[in-house]
Amino acid sequence: MKTYPGWRLGIGDFIMPAPRHRPPLKRPMWIIVLISMVSLLLIGAYVYPPRRYAACYIFSSEGCKTLEWIPPTPVRDYSDDELATRVVIRDILMTPPVHSKNPKIAFMFLTPGSLPFEKLWDKFFLGHDERFSIYVHASRDKPVHGSRYFAGRDIRADKVVWGKISMVDAERRLLAYALQDPDNMHFVLLSDSCVPLHDFDYVYNYLIDTNISFIDCFEDPGPHGSGRYSEHMLPEVEKKDFRKGAQWFSMKRQHAMITLADSLYYTKFKLHCKPGMEGRNCYADEHYLPTLFYMVDPGGIANWSVTHVDWSEGKWHPKAYRAKEVTYELLKNITSIDHSLHVTSDERKEVQQKACMWNGMKRPCYLFARKFYPETLDNLLHLFSNFTSI
């Protein structure tokens, strides 16, 4: 009878077999149980946060400060006026912009009397009659107009005193007149010493094709910035929101409506931002609009003005240009500037420089410039076609 090698093995060989291929090992049960327990514990901690002090550190290195329930900070009770103002401003911002078949730019001139650069502006406006509106607020003398574009464009005007709320009143009055025309989509505030730096098409496309307002706004912690703030503006206007900027704005229709709709914040500046008040000089035209729009729509403003002014001399008033200074090189240099510049008034004199961004692209900042003496008119007329094509 045939026998097989397996039957000739001893007893010990049957107890310790040595198979050629070892089957895979089973995962230890205790690891599976441990993972399950930890998972359940974490889920429980998420659903029912631990309250005991020692337990907090199991789940957070910061202790119970981050895990224990902290009652929310109570919202400040708004007065009737503040509540109404906030609701109106919110709804204006949420309302889709009005679209016009013939969008126009409102050019609003704030001047004491006649405009010395009417001939230059006449050349600027020539051939674009249906794309602009003009409004003139002459606060001292009835202006004499030499351009057909300005004839009959005077609005009712009151006396304007530099540095006082009457300056803001005049701006709001200009906006009120300009907003009556539903085709006016952008509103530019200009002075009697302002001149255009580009041709009309360039300016029109620059303003109409963007959805922001060019309102100058920056934080100045120095005596000529936050040092002008008064705590009487509380609770509606806090010091951390107090901003500064040049008054020469260019704003879209929604922001023009907000400027007229606001009475609450305007009143705070009317009562508590005055020259010589509480031992400090606060000028409403430098602080009201920058502060207002920093509070209600900070993302909707450019934080720089499209009107250039040179403060490099460090005086109370900006540099004013004489006839001999008005050259092609000067105007070319101004039109090529592509960054805004602010300097704080504290001891550090911090220079805040930012690129001028237009629809996400870096572009030259300025469409207009001031302050030019009337004697520069002939030079500007001679150079206009050259420097506006830069």
From TrEMBL:
Molecular-function GO term, any one: glycosyltransferase activity
One cellular component term from this protein's GO annotations in UniProt: membrane
Membrane topology: Single-pass type II membrane protein
Localization in the cell: Membrane
Keyword Glycoprotein: yes
Keyword field: Glycoprotein, Glycosyltransferase, Membrane, Transferase, Transmembrane, Transmembrane helix
Glycosyltransferase listed as a keyword: yes
Membrane-spanning intervals of the chain: 29-48
Record InterPro entries: BC10-like (IPR044174), Glyco_trans_14 (IPR003406)
Pfam families, per database record: Branch
Major place of residence: membrane
Top-level taxon of the source organism: Eukaryota
PANTHER family in the record: CORE-2/I-BRANCHING BETA-1,6-N-ACETYLGLUCOSAMINYLTRANSFERASE FAMILY PROTEIN-RELATED (PTHR31042), OS06G0661900 PROTEIN (PTHR31042:SF150)
Name of this protein: Glycosyltransferase bc10
